[in-house]
Design brief:
single chain; mainly beta; 14 strands; DUF4352 domain-containing protein
């Protein structure tokens, strides 16, 4: 099983040399074409998913509705996804040293947005890549939990993942 990434981290795909994905810019934002009536009383946020090709050949990338799943809160409830305002990557040729970005608008109860999990399953050249998970939350400065290394705070998965990755990095540098 793969460890989850923290929002902002790049994830390389072993089966596709030079291809990497990042979930980033998890931030409060109103949708550009207005709020969906079904999201009444919910807080909107925006997530960007960037695909970068550092390989030697062009690849065709698909990142459409159904390939991104957003879960919020400690129980992992599904966020409201505003498909009308979101922008996807639909069969785009990503040439070497180029990027393509999808922008997803979602909404949920404000109290649940301190823990946001985003799962992505990319399709490259009509082949499905492995699913990858990024953990984060709104209100976390730079994806960090603000704790000193070695201190455990029970503030949600994003904090636990961030503390774990920081501890692992410190162990590897000693």
């Amino acid at each position: 099983m793969y460890e989850p990434n923290v929002v902002g981290d790049w994830q390389e795909y072993e089966g596709h040399a030079g291809l990497r994905v990042r979930v980033h810019r998890l931030e409060p934002a109103e949708p550009p074409r207005g709020r969906d009536d079904a999201a009444e009383g919910l807080t909107y946020f925006r997530v960007r998913v960037t695909v970068e090709n550092r390989g030697a050949r062009q690849v065709t990338v698909h990142l459409e509705d159904g390939q991104i799943d957003v879960r919020i809160g400690p129980d992992g409830e599904s966020a409201f996804l505003d498909w009308r305002n979101s922008q996807f990557i639909e069969g785009f040729d990503v040439y070497p040293l180029r990027r393509a970005t999808a922008v997803l608008y979602a909404a949920g109860p404000e109290a649940s947005l301190d823990q946001v999990d985003v799962q992505v399953q990319l399709r490259v050249d009509d082949e499905w890549a492995d699913r990858r998970l990024w953990a984060g939350g709104l209100g976390l400065p730079g994806g960090e939990c603000g704790t000193s290394p070695g201190t455990a705070r029970e503030e949600g998965l994003a904090h636990q993942v961030s503390a774990f990755l920081r501890d692992q990095a410190e162990e590897g540098t000693a």
